[in-house]
């Protein structure tokens, strides 16, 4: 039986422009993954060095042929065509040190693949506006613009990789769920990710459809997949037909 392992990170307490739901999102996702048999490591409000330590420690724990999930809720920036996930000590990060102080999403995927997993699934719950960080930049205070863009750049991952983004590139709207606890994306992800006998691509399609519907099209998640098998996070042989038939379409009524 293959191992299922997850690293879940949520950063709210940014020194400049903190966020609201990321810690809740991370805790809830980690708990949900544990209920379906994942070994889930959850960490919140990480500074730069601690975040690096957590990522490397998790990488060393990955078993061969494991299904690996890496979930990040927080802030991200683009620089030189790469997406960097931001630690909470974001007030001193610049274009000169972003590569050493934040975490390149492609490199995170790459180091996970060095351990020979069956698949790597990266879930990024971050806003993705294109605009240059000028004036009200959340990462630079009283400094000249340094060429960083808030949000996520296109990622070019290796085979057996899925990347799920909570919104499309260039998006400025980032929805809050009606429960005021979770982002709209994580709220719907929590509703689908533990359902048995649904392949992971279908899970992400259902989540995206519900997010788009519940935000009236203002938030449109996207995804990339180079996983060519039907990959299931949880299987229940007794409810396979019922589960698939009841979850292939977005809900008609959303709470």
Mean pLDDT: 84
Helix and strand element order? EHEHEEEHEHEEEHHEH
Number of domains: 1
Q: For the largest sheet, list the strands in their spatial order.
A: 2-1-3-7-9-10
**CATH top level assignment:** Alpha Beta
Beta-strand content estimate: 15-25%
- Helix fraction? 25-40%
Q: How many individual β-strands?
A: 10
Globally, the shape reads: globular
In the CATH hierarchy, the third-tier topology is known as Rossmann fold
The N- to C-terminal Cα distance equals 37 Å
Major sheet summary line = 6 strands, mixed
Low-confidence region ranges:
129-146, 239-250
Q: How big is the Rg?
A: 18 Å
Any idea what the CATH architecture is?
A: 3-Layer(aba) Sandwich
Structural class based on helices, strands and sheet pairing: alpha/beta
Helices, by number, come to 7
Overview of the molecule:
By secondary structure, this protein is of the alpha/beta class. The chain has a single domain, classed as Rossmann fold, CATH 3.40.50.1460. The chain is 29% helix and 19% strand. It has helices at residues 22-35, 48-61, 98-101, 105-113, 184-192, 200-214, 240-247; strands at residues 4-10, 39-44, 67-73, 76-79, 82-85, 103-104, 119-125, 149-150, 161-165, 222-225. The strands form two sheets. Strands 2-1-3-7-9-10 form a six-stranded mixed sheet, sandwiched between helices. A four-stranded antiparallel sheet has the order 6-5-4-8. β4 (76-79) and β5 form a beta hairpin. α1 runs parallel beside α5 (184-192) and α5 (184-192) packs across α6 (200-214). The radius of gyration is 18 Å and the shape is globular. This is Peptidase C14 caspase domain-containing protein. GO terms for molecular function: cysteine-type endopeptidase activity. InterPro entries: Caspase-like_dom_sf, Caspase-related_regulators, Pept_C14_caspase.
């Amino acid at each position: 039986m293959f191992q299922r392992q997850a690293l879940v990170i949520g950063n709210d307490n940014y020194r400049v422009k903190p966020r609201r739901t990321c810690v809740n999102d991370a805790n809830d996702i980690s708990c949900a993954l544990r209920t379906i048999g994942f070994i889930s490591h959850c960490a919140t409000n990480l500074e730069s060095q601690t975040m690096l330590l957590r990522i490397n420690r998790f990488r060393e724990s990955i078993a061969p042929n494991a299904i690996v999930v890496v979930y990040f809720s927080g802030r991200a920036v683009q620089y030189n065509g790469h997406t960097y996930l931001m630690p909470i000590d974001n007030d001193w990060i610049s274009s000169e040190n972003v590569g050493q102080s934040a975490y390149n999403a492609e490199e995170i995927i790459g180091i996970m693949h060095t351990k020979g997993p069956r698949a790597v699934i990266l879930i990024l719950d971050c806003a993705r506006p294109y605009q240059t960080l000028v004036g009200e930049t959340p990462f630079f205070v009283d400094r000249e613009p340094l060429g960083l863009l808030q949000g996520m750049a296109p990622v070019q991952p290796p085979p057996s990789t899925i990347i799920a983004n909570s919104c499309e590139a260039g998006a400025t709207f980032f929805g809050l769920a009606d429960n005021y606890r979770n982002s709209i994306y994580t709220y719907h992800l929590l509703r689908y990710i533990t359902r048995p006998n649904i392949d992971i691509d279908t899970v992400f399609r259902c989540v995206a459809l519900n997010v788009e519907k519940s935000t009236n099209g203002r938030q449109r998640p996207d995804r990339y997949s180079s996983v060519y098998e039907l990959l299931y996070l949880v299987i229940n042989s007794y409810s396979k037909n019922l589960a698939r038939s009841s979850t292939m379409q977005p809900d008609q009524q959303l709470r």
